[in-house]
Design a protein that fits this description.
By secondary structure, the chain is an alpha/beta fold. The chain has 5 helices and 7 strands; from the N terminus they run E-E-E-H-E-H-E-H-H-E-E-H. It has a 7-stranded mixed beta sheet with strand order 3-1-2-4-5-6-7. The longest helix has 13 residues, at 80-92.
Amino acid sequence: MGEKLRLAGVIRESVVDGPGWRFVVFVQGCPHHCAGCQNPQTHDFKGGYEGDTDALFDAFCQNPLLAGMTMSGGEPFSQAGPLAVLAHRVHEAGKSVVTFTGWTYEQLLDGATEQNRWMDLLRETDYLIDGKFELAKKSLEIKFRGSTNQRIIDVKQSLAAGAAVEAEL
């Protein structure tokens, strides 16, 4: 049995949550409570249901056409440890990982500890969509983001460069 995590739901095939066909894991629990959030039902840390990384990975592997997995929410970095384990397995399968977060890349680096395991999940993320959703900056014209303040960060390049490197997907 894999590591436990709190889930809000899963979408087995999506084209709006990252490049290519994606398996999307929506985690339960979010500290940000952004006004206008498209998933307000995911805010309550006691809501949703219990899942585990093995079951999610097995479901992911059922579709060989998937380009990768996207972790959304809720706030994925509130459950960084189990998601890092899952993301590692996705990478071992040769697929990509996209992670959404309400924190900025810089906030994640500054706040990372051994206990919260944020660096574990960052290292297993190919592309990070960062920043809180801002209703005043909402746009339907930008890819994979809800508001123009949010960035698509190439995490591998950013870690190597020592600063956030934005990507076009």
